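PT: before anyone asks, these are the final sequences, not the draft ones from last week. 270 residues across everything. Please model them as a single complex and drop the result in this thread when it's through.
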Amino acid sequence: MQITRQADYAVRAVLHLARMNSSERAATSTVAKEQNIPPSFLAKIISQLSIAGLLHTSRGARGGVTLARNPGEITLLEVVEAIDGPIQLNECVGSDGGCTFDENCPIKPVWCDAQEELVARLKRTNFGDLLVKSR
Amino acid sequence: MQITRQADYAVRAVLHLARMNSSERAATSTVAKEQNIPPSFLAKIISQLSIAGLLHTSRGARGGVTLARNPGEITLLEVVEAIDGPIQLNECVGSDGGCTFDENCPIKPVWCDAQEELVARLKRTNFGDLLVKSR
DNA sequence: TGTAAACTGGACAATAAAATCGTCTTTAGA
DNA sequence: TCTAAAGACGATTTTATTGTCCAGTTTACA
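LR: through. Structure below.
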């Protein structure tokens, strides 16, 4: 019942980028150092975030990473789900239908509601808001 | 970001026991079969629930498992935490203080609030209520 | 055009979690 | 007292997560 370290790293990396001037690029190694994240591990995470369309990367000397959008247009949910996949509090609560074992299982709705609440909360939290709070 | 299978199994096992006549005992193997849980895995889970004081077990022939209390007095939170330990949405949100890295990290409060909400929800859901809904 | 900085991608090791297996101990009842 | 049913306990296997390493590829700039 925890987001993975990867997702936590991803969130911190995005926040780091959000704090910078939007015209600057940051090298993965710099972000890793300042955020205390294993560098080669972060490289993979950034690659995934880039594939997900949240970051832009540029290779070569003076290359680096920037946000693909405004901080205010990136939600916590997007970042977490780009790494961990869809949030799913229990196996039975998911797109794949889940446990067909007990048709009227009374527990499933509890997980569903809790999950919806959590997802909604992460969705309404964007990095623009987070930025304001951290200054 | 998911409860463990163990916790799910625990919840289903407790619900199974809650559905029975309170004077009856159920063998672990029976519960495992009816709830579709690997038997030897369930044995360990039941052992943990017993140590946590949620179940009573009796050994020997005609032994088995019963709830230690009324279904209405057992919450979903207790069962989940007996198996998975305290719910903690992220490493930094916990009793051990967490990341001292960024003193005014704006993300931590988000995880804290979300976690509190989830915990509260699981705490107010007891197996007495669940029983009613499943009939 | 050469070179150093930077991302890319794959293979792999270490660790933790999930699941399984086998053996032991306890106990009700014939 | 003997036996079969049942839980207790420890060893092992499997799988996912986390982290490392290294050999490519791209590109700005001297």
